Amino acid sequence: MLNTAEWYVIQVISWTEENVKQSLFQRRESFWLEEYILDVFVPTHDVVTVRAWWTQVKKKKNIFPGYILVQMIVTNESWYIVRNTPNVTGFLGAWNVPVPVKWEELDKLRWILARNSETFSTKYQVWEFATITKWPFEWNQGIISEINEKKGTLKLNVNMLGRDTPVELEFSQIKVN
User: Fold this and answer.
1) How far is CA 146 from CA 55, 68, 131, 149, 155, in A?
2) Domain chopping of the chain, boundaries
3) pLDDT digits (tens, 9 = 90+) for 119-142
4) Beta bridge partners of residue 172, listed in sequence order
5) Omega of the bond prior to 136 within 30 degrees of 0, cis?
6) Helix pair angle (76-83, 17-30), 10° resolution
7) What is the pLDDT of residue 39?
8) Residue environment code for 146-157, b if the CB has 16+ CB neighbours within 10 A, otherwise e
9) CATH 2.30.30.30 fits 124-176, yes or no
10) Where are the beta strands (DSSP E) in the chain?
11) Neighbours of 95 (CB within 10 A)
């Protein structure tokens, strides 16, 4: 087996990623394997859901449901402890031999996580009629013409001075009528 620390992908039962992470940290301490099982990483990003104009809910969303990354030195003991952790179904690799993740793939994953650190989710739809709830355009009404879930903004066409004017607003600044 290898004697250097590498990152490995572990298959787990979906939606148990955080529990497996905690279990791995507990098991490495219980079996004195801190120098072999170094780190556990669950790739997540924040998703902000706008339920109504006055509430926003922020949650962590798994990027790869059913998979986590473990940085470890593979020995018979460390492999056995990770493999037999509750809710772990196996290593990603060939047969029973874990295959380390390539550095290029790790860099790509870090880049994706940095770019998508936070996304927004909403039930608003284009062509819905909405009212602005925040100053300076408070109580103006218009039609949603564009939604940008990456930035958490939308464009509302508001009638100002006799013409439709697009106003860019955050999801929390409107309510749908």
Assistant:
1) 21, 36, 15, 10, 5
2) 6-45+62-116, 124-176
3) 666 778 888 888 888 877 778 888
4) none
5) yes
6) 140
7) 94
8) ebebeebebbbb
9) yes
10) 6-12, 37-41, 44-52, 55-62, 67-72, 88-91, 93-94, 97-98, 118-122, 129-132, 141-148, 153-160, 163-170, 174-176
11) 7
Whole-angstrom Cα Rg for the chain? 23
Per-residue pLDDT at 164:
83
pTM: 0.65
CATH topology of domain 6-45+62-116: Alpha-Beta Plaits (3.30.70)
Cα dihedral across residues 137, 139, 145, 149: positive or negative? positive
- Averaged pLDDT score across all residues of the chain: 84
- Give the per-residue pLDDT at 162: 77
Residues in the chain: 177
User: Looking up tokens 């986590």, which residue turns up?
Assistant: 68
Q: Is the pLDDT of residue 1 over 50?
A: no
Residue corresponding to tokens 């100053």: 135
Q: Which of 120, 119, 125, 121 is nearest to 176 (CA)?
A: 125
